[in-house]
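ok here's the first one, seq then C-alpha cells
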Amino acid sequence: MNSLAYIILFSFFMALIALIGSVGLLVPEKLLKKSILPLVAYAAGSLWGSAFFHLLPKSFHLLADKQDEAFIYLTAGFLMFFVLEHVIHWHHCHKTDHSHTHKPVGHLILVADGFHNFLSGLTIGAMFVVDIT
C-alpha cells in the first residue's frame, strides 16, 4: 500500500474515534447531567497530565541548551489563552438564576474543531510521508 492510502485509512480511523463523543446523544439526559462534570474534569486532567508529564519534559530535553525559550513559550501560551478568554468572555457557570447572559460559542467551537482536524490531518500526512512504520 502506498503512503496516500495509509494517510486516508488512518485519517478515517481517527475520524471514527472522534465520533465516540456522539455516544453522549444516546445517554438519558438525567445521567448525562449527572456525569458531565466528572467527565469534563477527567478530560481536563488528562490534557494537563499529558502536557506536564510528557510533552513539556520532552521539549525541555530536546531544547537542553534553549530551556529559557521553552519557558518563554510556555508562559506566552498561558498568557495568550488568558487574554483570549477575557476578550471572548467565555466561561462556564453553575448558577441557575441566569442573572447574566451567555454569548453563543457554537461558531467558535466549530472553527476551533475544524482547525484542530486540519492540523491533525497535516500531522498524519507528514508522519506517513516521513516513515510509515
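and now the second one, same deal
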Amino acid sequence: MDVDGVLTDGRLFHLVDQGGRLVELKGLDSQDGLALAWLARRGIRTGIISGRSSEGVAARAKMLRMSFIVQGVTDKLPAFEAILREAGLQARQAAFIGDDLPDLPVLRRAGWAIAVRNARPELRRAAHTVTRAPGGRGAVREVVETLLRAQGHWAELLRQYGGD
C-alpha cells in the first residue's frame, strides 16, 4: 500500500526542532494499525511503497510487522515487481491500496486493486474496489475486514474479542 493518503489522510505537518531541523509528523489511524497486526498474526504479508521517506513510517511499519518497506521511490511499479518476486507471488495474488497518480501503474497490475474513497478519479476508475472510508480514516481497516471475511476468519476474530 501507499502511505500518504492511504495510511494517513495525506496531510503533512512540518515543524522545526530546536536544532533547526525539519521534523515531519503524520497521523496514522489506530484501527488501521490493529487490522494490519491481525494480518501479520495470520501470516499475511503486508508492506508499503512510498514516494516519501520517513523514519517514523519505517518504525511504525516494523512495529506492525510489515514484510516490505520501500520508501523514496516515485516509480512504484519496479518496487511492486521486486516484492512479488521476493514473496514468490503472481500479481493476481497481490492487493494494492492507493490514492494518487504514482499508484496507478501498480493498481493496474495488482490482482485486487483498491482505491481509498478520496483517491484521484483516475484511481477510482481503475480500482476493483473503492473503500467507503477515506485514506487515513479507516480505509485500510475496511480492506482488512473484507479480506478476513472473505477468507472465513472474521467470526473467529470476533470470538477472540468476546463478540458475536
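notes on #2: The first strand starts at residue 13 and ends at 16. Residues 13-160 form a domain with the Rossmann fold fold (CATH 3.40.50.1000).
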